[in-house]
From TrEMBL:
<keyword id="KW-0732">Signal</keyword>
<dbReference type="InterPro" id="IPR037066">
    <property type="entry name" value="Plug_dom_sf"/>
</dbReference>
<protein>
    <recommendedName>
        <fullName>TonB-dependent receptor</fullName>
    </recommendedName>
</protein>
<dbReference type="Pfam" id="PF13715">
    <property type="entry name" value="CarbopepD_reg_2"/>
</dbReference>
<dbReference type="InterPro" id="IPR008969">
    <property type="entry name" value="CarboxyPept-like_regulatory"/>
</dbReference>
<feature type="signal peptide">
    <location>
        <begin position="1"/>
        <end position="23"/>
    </location>
</feature>
């Protein structure tokens, strides 16, 4: 990697030359819309004030709930939004840049009575955007994905700064929440479930190498880590509930970003001057293969990816809107075996590989304000994914011997309809249904060591359906007490697996600075679709032993305490217990396999729903929201994650690191009015993951890795430690904002251990390490 730092330094010095001196005072427009948080009805007459401005500036919303504040000097501001009968909303750290207008969507919560006790309005980061989330949830902003060191505009990588969240592999953005398998995560966009939105994703994964969705497209969104409300289903660990940003409907704007990872281009603007609709389109193309062709050492695979995402906002009247949104990503990795056997030192040198992973979704959402109490949102989404992998080994005659071939194709049409009802200022009801038509065409064959031949594991195509329905009631019992209760129903028509799941949460404010939260939920999840079609052949007859596998299920209980130490500093403690049951495991009292440890590939052996798991722990968060240009987030977790099969022994899951500590911090320095220098740090220390020991003698005899299954997950990796640093320089010019940044991942170049494997050509057990020091230089301009 010696060439990359030198290239980065040269480019950085060249770009810094564009930041020439200027003391001009620059301004920009801040505008947006204010609506009711349940019915989405516009609130005319609301006041929007820019706190700290001198003289004080602000605006009042018009009959459409819109406001506009012009000539706001560039910088970071706090806005207070108020209206009679509603709680004030406080938005802190609203960034105003000269390159693009700041356009906000603001919701207000109605007061239901006037009491002597007053609870101070929370800032936007104290609470989730979804008002029915009361435990284990937080909002994350686009600014966080941009500023966090090594987050590279990726929500998954950013989330590893949060308590209870651990990255399962530095090379991708898979995350484990509270010890759960990464595949237990739900992705949602614009209120509807979406397929895994990541490049280089595998059939059984919820993450991948790089996020398809660019930060250019995202608005502030929610991240939930347990006991989530009834509207979320088919997930066991957590939820990414993503919102898309609407394009500027008054002015055409552009964003261009170039980095060592790729080129990112976004354009947004109005369809016409007399129409309030807007478009936002983002395209990204990877430059990794170009750098590799120039001789930059980026690994053994030729890597390519590109993606397109968009959001079209189309008002159709004063009470209704149509939104057309979607994303698509293409990615592949290829490697050719070395053609000279004299150069073969490891089995990997003989391997050729072709991998692809393509994903996309297009949705149409219709939002309609039925009346002053009801808001209906109906969405239709068409989505699909195609993933394939093929690799082989060259023999001494330079013939390619196939070892694996897989091709997993899935498509889905989803219909959802959700009704929000404001029964009174105290009570609100949200109910909805999700109907899925699923199509699949899945195939896999692999090499069997026992027979020395390729054998088909999965070969099936067809269709099925799934149904989800929910209803949840939010009760503001008093100024201090809020209750949320609901039911979620899930059914997979393939084998008529069903689940009825109660959910409950409560939040009680002890005073204006502190509150306690309690949550419970029963959660269920469908197995990875290909798992149901694993086939077994006996005496010429093919059977499907997993066709009737039931849902994996889990009870979540969470107890939390929140305290505002001052307006900018927050402390949070949560303790939780999760009881997992009906988990697919291999049958037999001597078997140690559980699907809880399956991360990437599909399991094709016969399974039964007789496994268990338990996750429990305590999380601590101390967070300072940006104040005086300084922010920090300290999160600590002590936890245990274990599983049990029919052998009736509790074992560590692979991801049971037991402890994790993360510090994320940043400071900005302003000078000459229009320049900002930022330095951001993230350091993570965690317990090592667990591996099953390798039987060296048996591996030598077989010519491949043989595990000591009776000692499953009894060998722990060394502790994990990683430090990332980001430095950036932002310059506001009269019609543009330029930012140059350098992210250095794994700054200390620590060799963190991932796992071990048997190397046949050396006859030894070797170690696989996670990513080394990687610098990522980027340049961004908004205009």
């Amino acid at each position: 990697m010696k060439m990359i730092p030198s290239i980065s330094t040269l480019i950085l010095l060249a770009l810094l030359g564009t930041f020439h001196a200027s003391a001009q005072t620059l301004t920009q427009t801040v505008r947006g819309k204010v609506t009711d948080h349940i019915t989405k009805s516009p609130i005319p007459g609301a006041t929007v004030m820019v706190l700290g401005s001198d003289p004080l500036i602000g605006a009042v919303t018009d009959e459409s709930g819109d406001f506009k504040i012009t000539q706001v000097p560039v910088g970071a501001y706090t806005l207070r939004i108020g209206f009679v009968g509603y709680r004030d909303a406080i938005l802190s750290q609203i960034q105003v840049n000269s390159g693009k207008e700041t356009v906000l969507t603001i919701v207000l919560e109605e007061e239901f009575n006037q009491m002597d006790e007053v609870v101070v309005s929370a800032t936007e980061k104290d609470r989730t955007i979804n008002d029915m989330v009361t435990v284990s949830g937080r909002t994350f902003s686009v600014e966080e994905t941009r500023k966090y060191a090594a987050a590279i505009n990726d929500p998954g990588r950013m989330a590893t700064s949060f308590a209870g969240v651990v990255g399962s592999d530095d090379g991708n953005n898979n995350i484990s929440i509270r010890g759960n398998n990464p595949s237990a995560l739900l992705w949602r966009m614009e209120g509807i479930d979406i397929p895994n939105p990541n490049h280089f994703a595998a059939a059984a994964a919820a993450g991948g190498g790089v996020a398809i969705l660019s930060a250019q497209l995202l608005d502030n969104s929610d991240f939930i880590t347990g006991a989530f409300p009834a509207e979320y289903g088919n997930a066991l660990s957590g939820v990414f509930d993503l919102n898309l940003r609407k394009g500027n409907n008054e002015k055409r704007e552009f964003t261009v970003q170039a980095s060592l990872l790729g080129t990112d281009i976004a354009v947004e603007g109005p369809f016409s001057k007399n129409y309030r609709g807007s478009y936002l389109i983002n395209y990204r193309y990877s430059t990794l293969s170009m750098l590799a062709s120039l001789g930059v050492p980026l690994g053994d695979f030729v890597t390519n990816f590109q993606d397109l995402s968009f959001n079209f906002f189309l008002p159709t009247g004063t009470k209704s809107t149509i939104t057309v949104f979607g994303f698509g990503g293409l990615s592949d990795q290829n490697r050719n075996a070395l053609q000279d056997s004299l150069t073969w030192q490891t089995e990997f040198d003989r391997m050729s590989s072709t991998f692809f992973s393509n994903t996309g979704a297009v949705g149409i959402k219709h939002a309609y304000i039925l009346n002053k109490s009801n808001f209906l949102q109906t969405t239709v989404l068409a989505s699909g994914s195609s993933m394939g992998d093929k690799y082989g080994i060259l023999n001494r005659e330079y013939q390619d011997e196939e070892r694996l071939y897989s091709d997993f194709g899935q498509s889905k049409i989803t219909f959802s309809s959700v009704l929000n009802t404001k029964i009174s200022p105290k009570y609100s009801l949200r109910s909805g249904v999700f109907l899925n038509q699923l199509h699949y065409n899945v195939y896999e064959r692999g090499f069997e060591e026992n027979t020395g031949q390729m054998q088909t594991h999965i070969d099936e195509k067809g269709y099925t359906q799934s149904v989800q329905a929910f209803s949840q009631l939010n009760v503001r019992a008093s100024q201090r007490l809020t209750l949320n209760m609901g039911l979620h129903y899930l059914q997979l028509m393939l084998n008529n697996s069903t689940a009825l799941e109660p959910r409950f949460s409560a939040s009680f404010a002890l005073d204006e600075k502190q509150r306690i939260n309690l949550g419970y939920g029963l959660h269920s999840q469908v197995q990875p679709l290909g798992t149901y079609f694993a086939q077994k052949e006996e005496e010429g007859t093919i059977t499907f032993p997993n066709k009737n596998l039931g849902l994996s299920r889990s009870h979540h209980v969470v107890l939390g305490y929140d305290r505002s130490l001052n307006p900018y500093l927050r402390m949070k403690v949560e303790t939780y217990y999760q009881h997992l049951f009906d988990i697919p495991v291999m049958p037999g009292t001597h078997q140690t396999y559980s699907i809880l440890n399956q991360e990437w590939s599909l399991m094709t052996d016969p399974l039964v729903n007789r496994g268990f798991g338990k996750n429990y722990g305590t999380e601590f968060t101390l967070e300072q929201f940006t104040h005086r240009s300084l922010y920090f987030l300290l999160s600590a977790s002590l936890y245990s994650s274990q599983y049990k099969t029919e052998e009736n022994i509790w074992r560590n899951t692979r991801l049971n690191g037991r402890a994790n500590l993360a510090l994320t911090a940043g400071k900005e320095y302003h000078w000459r009015k229009n320049r900002t220098f930022g330095i951001n740090l993230r350091t993570i220390y965690g317990g090592g993951f667990w591996n099953t020991p390798i039987d060296l003698d048996a591996s030598i005899a077989q010519g491949g890795t043989v595990l000591v299954e009776s000692m499953a997950y009894t060998e722990q990796n060394p502790a994990y430690f990683r430090t990332d640093i980001r430095v950036s320089l932002k310059r506001n010019r009269p019609k543009s904002t330029q930012t140059v940044a350098l992210d250095v991942q794994n700054t200390t170049n620590r060799k963190n251990v991932y796992s071990k494997y048997f190397e046949p050509m050396e006859g030894s057990i070797n170690t696989i390490y996670l990513v080394p020091l990687i610098p990522v230089l980027s340049y961004r301009v908004e205009f």
